[in-house]
Amino acid sequence: MNDSTPAATPASRTSSTTSPPQTALITGASGGIGYELAKLFATDRYNLVLVARSGEKLNQLANELQTQHGIRVSVVSVDLAEPAAPKFLFDQLRRDRVDVDVLVNNAGFGVFGEFSQMPEAEILDQIQVNITALTRLTKLFLAPMIERRAGRIMNVASTAAFQPGPLMAVYYASKAFVLSFSEALANELRGSGVTVCCFCPGATNTGFAKRAGLEGSRLFNQIGATNVEAVARDGYRGLMAGRTLVISGMHNWLVAESVRFAPRKLVTAVSRWITEKAGS
Fold first, then answer.
1. Active-site residue flag, 46
2. Which segments of the chain are extended strands (E)?
3. Considering the entire predicted model, what is its pTM?
4. What are phi and psi of 151, to 5 degrees?
5. Which of 35, 46, 175, 236 is catalytic?
6. What is the pLDDT of residue 209?
7. Nearest in space to 183 (alpha carbons), one of 167, 173, 172, 196
């Protein structure tokens, strides 16, 4: 299957029941896509390391998954907007002798508004979480994977990666970085035993829209969002199939493909119209 095809075709999951349990680390695991991915990994008997700011939510999820699936779940409450957080996380797992077989860089957020009016802290935090922390975590956990000649990395981008995004300029640009970085890294790692998957969901029913201030946008208010469980399944299947690029949903795939051929000014104008509040 071509790497840029939509993730609508069912694919069997890879189970670890016939070999020693593997461990998946998921950032942004307290809700949304990260939460659903954690449940999918648990179903396939992966031990888990769950990372997010909310320790309370993570502990609830950990108890739920341990009880239901008999797996081991570790919780690390850390804010990836803090520059030292990725190294802190890596060092803690090394001290605990936890080998990470699958790294899922899911944490990320966006903020609605014009760049010139946005507080500098919000701009820099988006770059820190969406780009810097993702890149550093990949760097840290990649070396042991290469040494073992086995591992999987999923970097969660977005269909926002395929075009500029007025009114969310930093978020869209950060996801374009994730897409380009992941595809290049996947090429570099051919034959290493390590695969890299860039997962690009579209609008999804999670807490993202509320945090970003997008609840009244045409994208979420008129066009509509996709069920988070279905989106997570698309990403999980693509990761396990070793695909480099996974776009969730046929509609999103068609949009991502179409922007390659449309005039850039038109693409940017349409992107703004979708992001604007309904009635603007």
1. no
2. 23-27, 47-52, 73-77, 102-105, 151-156, 194-200, 245-247
3. 0.86
4. 165, 160
5. 175
6. 52
7. 196
